[in-house]
Specification:
This protein is an alpha/beta fold. It is built from five helices and nine strands; from the N terminus they run βαβαβαββαββαββ. The chain has a seven-stranded mixed β-sheet with strand order 3-2-1-4-5-6-7, sandwiched between helices. Strands 8-9 form a two-stranded antiparallel ribbon. The protein starts with 6 loop residues before the first strand and ends with a strand.
Length: about 210
């Protein structure tokens, strides 16, 4: 059972929510001391919204296409976040830039399916990342969890893990192995945050010893 003072996490997503499902499973198994208090999707048909609703978690679509101005889009997201006393925002497959606006500086994380600063930025997401890795001839890729700042995939790195690129890889096969790593790194990063063990020092994140 989740403790009453567990970290309150809001998840932003744009797709099916497999990373969200991973968090639910970790919480339910008692290996992650957190609770998902809200899920916000940038698409009406984002599958992650239904995953949240099945568990009774507030889930709302804020369709990006209805907000030509990124600031207005973020206004709507922040208005929803303000309703839930959020400790941490987790961007999990969220295809828009979340503006931390001071309130969530150092309290918003993102997962990216490559080793930042390689294969990252505004136009690098989903299968595009893995296609670019294969096209480049790179022999190593991986996954990164980092804090969110004012640019795409640019905030201080919390955790990274390498994944070898195989000669017979396709974008789908590479994505599958990278996702396995993502599902390990994201809960670990959230647990470190919940335990007060992450300290941002300039461009670096220090992982502090457990008390």
């Amino acid at each position: 059972m989740t403790s009453p003072d567990a970290l309150r996490v809001a998840v932003l997503l744009s797709g099916e929510g497999t990373s969200l499902e991973n968090l639910f499973e970790r919480i339910e198994s008692g290996t992650l001391d957190a609770q998902i208090v809200a899920v916000i999707g940038s698409k009406e048909n984002a599958g992650g919204l239904e995953r949240a609703r099945r568990r009774g978690v507030p889930a709302l679509a804020v369709p990006r296409e209805q907000y030509p101005d990124p600031g207005d889009f973020n206004d709507a997201i922040h208005a929803e976040l303000d309703r839930h006393e959020v400790d941490l925002v987790a961007c999990l497959g969220f295809l828009s830039l979340f503006e931390t606006r001071g309130k969530f500086d150092g309290r918003a994380i993102n997962v990216h399916p490559a080793l930042i600063p390689a294969f990252c930025g505004k136009d690098y997401y989903g299968q595009r990342v893995h296609e670019a890795v294969l096209a480049s001839g790179a022999t190593v890729t991986g996954a990164t969890v980092h804090f969110v700042d004012e640019e795409y995939d640019c905030g201080p790195i919390i955790l990274q893990e390498e994944v070898a690129v195989r000669a017979d890889d396709t974008p789908a096969s590479l994505a599958e192995r990278v996702q396995v790593v993502e599902r390990r790194l994201v809960p670990r990063a959230i647990q470190l945050f919940a335990s007060g063990r992450l300290a941002i020092e300039g461009r670096q994140v220090q992982i502090l010893d457990a008390p």
